[in-house]
Amino acid sequence: MADSILIKNGYVYDPINNINGETLDISIKDRKIVEKASADAEVIDASNMIVMPGAIDIHTHISSQTVNFGRMFTKPPSQPLYTTSQIGQEYIKQGYTLFIEAAVAAHLARHTHLEFQDIPFIDKAFLVLVGSDSHVMDFLKKDRIEECAAYLSWLLKSVKGYGLKLANPGGAEMWAWGKDTDSLEKQILGYDLNPLDIVTGLVRVNELLNLPHSIHIHPNQAGRPGNIDTTIETLESIQDIEKSSQVRRNQLIHIAHAQLHSYGGQDWENFESKSQTIVDYVNTHEQVELDIGQITFHTSTAIFPDGAYAYYLAKMANSRWISNNIELEGNFGAITLNFSPEHYIDAIKWTIGLEIALQVTNPWQVQLSTDHPNMGLVTDYPKVISWLISKLARDEIVDTLHPDVQNNAILPHLEREYSLHEIAIITRASQAKSLGLDIQRGHLGIGAVADVVVYNFDPKANDPSKEYKLLEKAFSHAEYVIKQGNPIIKKRIIDPNVFTGSTLWVDAKVNEDLGNKTLENLERKLERYSSINTPNLYVDSSYLKNSEKIMIQSNL
After folding, report:
1. What's the CATH code, domain 55-434?
2. Model's pTM, two decimal places?
3. What's the rounded Cα separation, in Å, for the pair 459 and 48?
């Protein structure tokens, strides 16, 4: 394997460095992008091809306890919950070099790290579920924000997590009593607070800790008609909170799978898209960003860190489902879903994600996602890219949809087509910025980690909006992929010598006295009331094959 690589004459798309299709050479040495490659560097001729940084999936479910519930629930080939080896290969083929597992319960984090060890090629990190954490709710109901921050600093360090995830805030506690958070003002049973108190409290905590990624939220009332009101009310609740001046990201909050939270109507009889409402909000609030959660037409086992929503879907579809409650932390559910273009509601849902992506003015506030495996699959990304870059591709699908879609959706009338530069933003640069990783990842500037992808598509000879099938084919299997300076794919062939990427995690330092006092109180509480204690939550560094710790100094 060469210590140095020179990628010559490619059309480079690197939004972080304002490079838009220029013909450039990319030099690699010692796993980094450098100014000049070695004289004996391996040369890759990228003439008439696209060169981009490695892609980043900011929201996926591929390596957690929920995935295993799904694997037990349904057998292949009826559901594509890939094995660890398969998922690494599917990602790297498309040029993805980093993913974020978006929902991990803290005391099951070891399982995720063990799966991470077995996933080849790509870097990974995970978000820790805290929106129904009993300790968090205890702190917040007493407005003990600094102690809550100290606790979550300790938790992230202990489980080797990257950031904080809220799924149906307070909902798991309510679901344990057979109830749901059907109103943001509704008090959580046993706690003198409501879902909005949890959201605002944890956004404040996140900024105190200077975490590289913002609060990442799956808002309440996911997937229900009329939930747009809940989504907007949630976003409005944080308007007066200031973003920390110590972080690189622009946003205070990240909305997961926004399509799922942009529904209008009182019930399914008068269900409608409210994409315009969320678009209008995002376009006027730079502190908000989203991943779209695009639906594709498929059958899959869907897995949610929101047991109430899984039950709701099971009742609606008269389908079997599985659920699991996790002591003090949350719950999960799994159900088989089928999305059909001939079904009116499914067809409207398909339009919503694309309407959001096409109408948000600033692509840096948008990230591509399918919420794998729930709304779509990781293997569907090239298809979704073709829909964004080509109205012809969209119209081809619209013609197969339920006939009422033409009159009741905005999408057929939208003319916007993404450029390749904008595709590079929503698949790479925006994610890197959102995660606070834009110094070392998501770009091809000097000093960046050498994650580079070459796609065999000539944008000068082919109009992507017209030759979208060729573009989809190119993005489905990259010609070359370089991961941390290692050639993983050459001429579309994956190197059988498995390279294991890094696991990224955050250590946010807080005042030592505050941290010690908070931990002592936590240990006493767990010993008295819980079947688990702090050692059960601690993940030893031996569980991480290639650990990449990100040191943060908090405001505490």
Report:
1. 3.20.20.140
2. 0.96
3. 8
